[in-house]
Amino acid sequence: MVLKVEIEEPRCVAAGHCVTAAPEVFDQRETDGVVVLLDAAPPPGAYAHVREAALLCPAAAILLRERDGSA
Amino acid sequence: MPEPQVLPFAARAAGCPFTPAPELYAMQKEEELSRVDVPSPILDTFEAVAVTRYEDARALLSDERLQMGFVFDPDAPRSMLNQPGNLLNYNGADHTRLRRMLTGAFTVKRIRALQPVIEEIVAGRLDALAAAGPGADLISTFCTPIPTLVICELLGVPYADRADFQRRAQVGLDVNATREEHITNLVEMDAYMGELVAAHRRSPGDNLLGAIVRDHGDRLTEDELIGIGNMLLVAGHETTASMLACSSTLLLRHPDQLAVVRDEPAALDGAVEELLRYCSPAITMPREAAEDIELRGRRIRRGERVVLSVLVANRDRALADTDLDTLDVRRAPQPHITFGYGVHQCLGQQLARAELRTALPALFNRFPTLRLAVEPDAIDYRTTALVFSVNTLPVTW
Ligand code: HEM
Questions:
Q1: DSSP character for B388?
Q2: Which InterPro entries match (chain B) (predicted)?
Q3: Is B3 domain-assigned?
Q4: Pick from B83, B86, B107: which is nearest to B95 by CA?
Q5: What tens digit of pLDDT does each residue of A24-61 get?
């Protein structure tokens, strides 16, 4: 299973949960706090944090796509 | 004088101010949506759907058809609910435009950079508490001053003016103040913030108000700047002061849990989340349906008002098979809507967390023998305001 991360920037409300949950995958733009995706294909070790970030995001701005490892 | 009213969707069990009233649990079990009469000094009494289930609250708060029903109307008389600049009065693109002018100051990085400021403020209040001596009121020496000093520092509001702006904030959140009191109060708040804004227009200061004027001043009216300033000043101190007050009260009543907050840095973040879930200081979020909304096969009609009951939603028994009415700072992470959900989720939440994580352990480390100087039954809770809190809390050590 491979996890791909996408963000929908216009939805972001800069609550900051993703940066707290998975700092290795998400950052915030300095001017307005909008999410910056650092790693669209994070290593499996980061999956739990990324899932937490997606769950906590109040604006559903983080999309996760899970695919078979073979894909 | 009529008896002060408690909002029906925020009622608490007799003798247990941290536990929702049984009627709210009864509503939560009902499959039908409950409708309640909500007293309001500004709108008179109105009927609203009372949302008590956690999943309903989350679904509705992320539904664009459910809006702030009190959008700014320049022709109507000014009131707390009719104030330009206040993010809670905007929807859609207008809301995003304004919110993004402010979010840069509240990023995780920017809040981390404030940590030394917060620590210094907390240390100052611990000294003040020591100087006041046993018998001191924890609320007025510690819980209220900390967030007030932090927001003053951040915004650039003189701390010396606090007696007036704190009083105005409390009137603004008082469900039992009259409509006239609310309107006069807002005129005073606007006049005060108007002067600060005018000073920043002349020469933008080295703080958040100055930065907003410098970076966005050409796209904001005076009214909007005043509204932004007032919103940050009120939202920035009342709720966090309440969290410090409620958390201290609860922890002093549960020494085993206090010990976790005091002695276990690794457990601190989880403990603060649990306290946030359990205290739910901002008791409600009011909305209005802009269109018909279908929820679990039931209908909220266009134009209907909706009030979310934060306290009982955070205790929803559908969320966990454990007892959510017990405070347990070691609990596995439990979702909550104490900061709201959806696009209006609290702008200042990382700042509030930083203040709580700093102030609570520092208090119990500095005063390891701290205890209540009042019987638990005699604690003076504030139950008739939009922000639940504790009025006074005598402590000794
Ligand atoms: C523990 C402390 C706090 C609690 C419990 C709290 C709670 C809330 C809640 C529930 C909302 C959403 C209201 C709604 O959707 O109707 C909110 C929004 C907001 N809060 Fe907080 N808050 C806290 C601290 C702060 C601080 C420290 C600040 C500012 C420095 C702040 C600024 C705001 C602002 C500006 C909004 C409006 C956001 C928007 O509409 O986009 N809050 N807060």
A1: -
A2: Cyt_P450, Cyt_P450_B, Cyt_P450_CS, Cyt_P450_sf
A3: no
A4: B86
A5: 999 999 999 999 999 999 999 999 999 999 999 999 99
Closest CA to A21 of A44, A58, A49: A49
pLDDT in tens, B116-156: 999 999 999 999 999 999 999 999 999 999 999 999 999 98
Q: Where are the domains of chain A?
A: 2-67
Query: Which residue of B88, B102, B343 to mutate against A (max A Cβ within 10 Å)?
Result: B343
Would you say A66 and A2 are in contact if contact means Cβ atoms under 8 Å apart?
A: yes
**pLDDT value of position B317:** 84
Q: What backbone torsions phi and psi does residue B192 show, to the nearest 5 degrees?
A: -65, -50
Give the CATH class of A2-67: alpha beta
Which tokens is B394 given?
Answer: 């005598």
Query: A44 burial class (0-12, 13-18, 19+ CB within 10 angstroms)?
Result: exposed
Question: Which positions in chain A touch B346 (Cβ < 8 Å)?
Answer: 15
**Does residue B1 belong to any structural domain of this protein?**
no
Helix ranges (DSSP H) in chain B = 22-29, 54-61, 92-102, 108-113, 115-132, 138, 145-155, 162-172, 179-202, 208-216, 222-253, 255-263, 268-279, 310-313, 349-366
Question: What is the tally of structural domains in chain B?
Answer: 1
B88 lines ligand 1 (CB under 6 A): yes
Contacts of A60 in chain B (CB under 8 A): 62
B203 CB-contact burial (10 Å; exposed 0-12 / middle 13-18 / buried 19+): exposed
Q: Which domain holds residue B156?
A: 8-396
